[in-house]
Amino acid sequence: MKIFNKENIYKADKITIKNQNIESEVLMERAAIQIFGWLKTQLQENFPTIHLFCGIGNNGGDGLALARLLLNDGYEVEVYVVNFSDKRSDDFLLNLARLKENKLWPEFIGENSDLPQLPEGDIVIDAIFGIGLNRSAAGWIKELIQHINTSKTYVIAVDVPSGLYLDKAPDDKEAIVKANTTITFQFPKLVFFLPETAEFAGNVEIVDLGLDREFINTTTSEAFLISRNDAQRLYKPRAKFAHKGDFGHCLIVGGSYGKIGSVVLATKAALRAGAGKVTSLVPECGYDILQSTVPEAMVITAFNDNFLIPTEINFKPQSSVFGIGAGKGKKTAKFLEQLLTDAHSPLLIDADGINILAEHTDLLELLPEKSILTPHPGELKRLLGDWKDDFEKLNKAKDFSKKYKVVLVIKGAFSITIADDNLYINTTGNPGMATAGSGDVLSGIISSLVAQGYDATIAAVFGVYLHGKAGDYAAQENGFEFVIAEDIVNNLGNAYKSLFQQHPEN
Ligand SMILES: NC(=O)C1=CN([C@@H]2O[C@H](COP(=O)(O)OP(=O)(O)OC[C@H]3O[C@@H](n4cnc5c(N)ncnc54)[C@H](OP(=O)(O)O)[C@@H]3O)[C@@H](O)[C@H]2O)[C@@H](O)CC1
Ligand SMILES: [K+]
Predict the structure, then answer these.
(1) What's the predicted TM-score (pTM) here?
(2) What pLDDT does residue 504 have?
(3) Span from the CA of 182 to the centroid of ligand 1 (angstroms)
(4) ipTM score above 0.85
């Protein structure tokens, strides 16, 4: 699903009005109807008081239209106009008049007004600012936002939590509504998925306004949200007469004394994700462990008991993983250099592999094109240096990916894959996956997909999706705390199957 920037959202709005030959207020009504429908479904037979805070732009107009629909359906509503300017939009004014026709006169809140009481259990609709925010909320508007945030109401933001910019980091986090749910129109917004700002949006619901399909399809976007429909399209079906040679040979290089488990997990994951053959290369201390825990894999060893040293590899894998559990000793770093120099196919570099690259930046030049790096934020910092906010982090990551022609997967609650100037944001996964070995499983999955012939960017995007989905199945069964990395591997089958189920369970 495309994530549009502010300019393209406004364009989509305009083109729809023109092509569908409608007035702009029709889109506002569609927006209000969508939120009304969502609320009604959630509330069922409950009728809490609903407090609607409406600005004077079109976000406020949406709020007023929603207030009318709720009022006419018998809900108890309290409507406040947050009267920060006299530049009221036409559709705001139209909906204000319609509300008055329905005998509801909103209360106007200004600089010296008392703030309304917001009793626990009531609902707040935040329609103060939408995508038109152009500076931080200040003064009494900020106080109102804080009043909403400290209340014990359930807060639903219309389109965007008021005070949150779409295209830059907040300059005052105290001046942003903290929503429980954000119902956003047509397009997901990037800031809802970035670590510093996701908390303001809460649960995100995307509702359709019927905006111009052709414009959406033909307009390019730099960012995408990957949901089930997108993942489904990435899947490569298997031919009936396929044989294991068609699904590639994946090499997993890693491990050191006490850390052979990481290679076991990645090896299993690579096999379960579908690689035709998997060979693991470990120090000798790992030989028995791998042979007995993963009999399906082949094992070769470095001539050293406890850590990896340069070792000759006498076959050409279609993909390789380097770094998991490897440590970053001198000889291990030398081995990475050898692997990079001899590589015939993209490498996936994780964990200590990334730390070695950060310490020996000359090695970066040797990375084969389309290699994949999968850092968590700490490893990314070692690679890129510090950043002041999420936007700077993404820009630095994009520059890095372009410079070295590699795919970056930044791991997190919403993992982000960066390649060719594009961002792909993952939607699967859960806090149960914050557990040892989870990243090793991801490395195995992605590398397995590369071995099977998936393009590196697609392998990363699809692999991250499958990994999260498998983790969701694991957590669904036994709860977040119970999940260990092995459970993620064991649910990969469910993750694949869910792509094509009519009604997936999660
Ligand atoms: N696109 C679509 O498809 C559809 C969009 N729709 C809806 O429209 C929304 C966008 O509406 P919008 O453009 O009128 O902007 P909005 O967010 O209401 O605010 C603008 C006002 O805020 C003001 N202002 C800004 N910052 C401020 C500050 N810190 N402190 C004080 N004032 C500040 C600014 O004033 P100014 O800067 O000019 O002083 C201006 O008056 C969108 O989010 C969605 O809800 C739907 O109706 C249907 C289809
Ligand atoms: K809002």
Answers:
(1) 0.95
(2) 61
(3) 16
(4) yes
